[in-house]
Sequence to fold (123 residues):
Amino acid sequence: VQLVESGGGSVQAGGSLRLSCVGSGYTYSMYCMSWFRQAPGKEREPVAGIYTYDGQPYLADSVKGRFTISLASTGNTVYLQMNNLKPEDTAMYYCAAIIGPCPSTVVAGSFPYWGQGTQVTVS
Fold:
C-alpha cells in the first residue's frame, strides 16, 4: 500500500487548507484511512479517520467543528478539510491506513501504512 499526501502549506490563522491522501496498491477494499500530525518535540497524534467501507468518521476533540474528513467516490482518496486554522495546528500531517474499521483507540503504532507527510504551518 502506498499513500501520497498533498495540500499542505502556510496560511494565516483563521485560514483553510484541504489535504488529500491518495492510496494505491490495496489488497483489500476496506481500510481505515487516518490523518495524524506531529509537531516538533511532540508525539504523533491522531486527527481524523474514516472507514472506507461505510464512511464512518472520527475526529479528535481538538479539531471537531473545524476539520472535516471525507472519502472520494473512488474510495482511494481521503480529504481533510481544515477550516479556522490555529497556530497550534502547525505540524507535519501524515496519512496512514490500517485494514478494517478504525480502532476504538487510535494510536500511530497500530497503523502499518504511512505516507511521507505534508507540512502545515499556521501563523
User: Anything to note?
Assistant: The chain has a mean pLDDT of 93. Residues 50 and 105 are 14 Å apart (CA to CA). The chain has no helices and eleven strands. The first strand starts at residue 2 and ends at 6.
